[in-house]
Amino acid sequence: MVFTAEQIAGFTGGTVEGDKNAQVTTFAKIEEGKPGALSFLANLQYESYLYETHSSIVLVNKDFTPKRPVSATLIRVDNAYESIAKLMQLYQSMQQKRTGIDPLAYVAPTAKIGKDVFLAPFSAVGDGAEIGDGAQLHPHATVGARAKVGQNTIMYSNSVVYHDCVVGNHCILHAGSVVGADGFGFAPTAQGYEKIPQLGNVVIEDNVEIGANTCVDRSTMGSTRVKKGVKLDNLVQIAHNCEVGQHTVMSAQVGVAGSTKIGEWCVFGGQVGITGHYQVGDHVQVGAQSGIAGGNLARKGHCTLMGSPAIDAKKWQRNIAVVNNLAALQQEITELKKQIAELKK
User: Fold this and answer.
1) Which residues form the catalytic set?
2) DSSP letter assigned to residue 339
3) To 10 degrees, what angle do helices 313-323 and 326-344 make?
4) Residue 311, CA distances (Å) to 265, 267, 308 in order
5) Phi and psi of 83, rounded to 5°?
6) 200/222 Cα distance (integer angstroms)
7) For the segment 4-17, what is each residue's pLDDT rounded down to a tens digit?
């Protein structure tokens, strides 16, 4: 597919500087640009590549001022990063989707399959399950009994939706992700740990993306719920009876313990841990490797936290500055003790 600079500017609401008839057929990073490619510049750390790139068209922010001549055609937009994302989504939507049920796919007689569905070899749909229009199940993707998968949802290889769970429309489940495995519930007894049956389910709302090998556990009773627009990276663990608010984002290896509720528009860095039976407010940002173990800061919301246990990020930065000087402080105190001892003599 071929797009001109004029067409791209029309779609993004931008203005063209250079050849409005310049054409592109693919995307490329600005540092790897080639003729016929569309690139973007949002982070000024990459500005030097703009003057060297061979890309035909580059998206830039409206307030950007080049320091040197640029050979590529520029399209000025409000937000270059957001615009390139929309263009890539448009490009992907124009790709021809595969449809049809492969003879090697298993579909239970009582399952309901929508229109234009793709079921790859060795995918499986259980008794009473429902697959929405345009959904895609790649090889070894499995949908359990009575589970529901919404319209245009993609399940990549070896992703699993357990029995009675619900996945909404326009979701993406990456390879190895598991929705609805048992929550980690055991009752200690004199003879060992007695398993507590996990009788609830998981509800994934619309436009949710779940990364590779990420797990969302089913609830003991009721539903573990991931609300619309949530994005979970690879290797994330959402325990039983949790609730993740709309448009919250979690980086790799985040762990959320049971019965915790996360607010809307939160951002969690890699390896953040959150204690169980806790409530995190809206618009909370938590730095990588931080641990939320209680307190009211996260509960109130609209804050940035770091450290373990997590505290206000600015306070944590001041504390770390002191920690980095502990050796020098210890040496200074030792010298002062010696001087005091000499004075006492």
Assistant:
1) 240
2) H
3) 50
4) 19, 15, 8
5) -70, -40
6) 5
7) 999 999 999 999 99
Tokens of 140: 């070894």
Side chain identity at 18, as an amino acid letter?
G
Q: Which residue type, as a one-letter code, is found at position 129?
A: A
Question: Whole-angstrom Cα distance, residue 226 to residue 238?
Answer: 9
Secondary structure (3-state) at 16: strand
Q: In DSSP terms, which residues pair with 101 in a beta bridge?
A: 119
Q: What is d(CA 306, CA 294) in angstroms, rounded to the nearest whole number? A: 13
Q: What is the pLDDT of residues 39-87, one digit of tens each?
A: 999 999 999 999 999 999 999 999 999 999 999 999 999 999 999 999 9
Tell whether the model's pLDDT for residue 95 goes beyond 90: no
Q: How is residue 95 written in tokens?
A: 């790709």
Q: What share of the chain has pLDDT > 90, as a percent?
A: 93
Rounded to two decimals, what is the model's pTM?
A: 0.86
CB 55 within 8 A of CB 38: yes
- CB environment 159-176: b (16+ within 10 A), e (fewer): bbbbbbbbbbbbbbbbbb
CB 260 within 8 Å of CB 245: no
Q: Tell me the percentage of the chain whose pLDDT exceeds 70.
A: 100
- Three-class secondary structure of residue 141 per DSSP: coil
Structure tokens at 272: 């953040």
CA distance 269 to 205: 22
Domains of the chain: 3-93 (3.40.1390.10), 100-318 (2.160.10.10)
Which tokens is 332 given? 């200074």
Q: Which of 224, 222, 131 is nearest to 181 (CA)?
A: 224
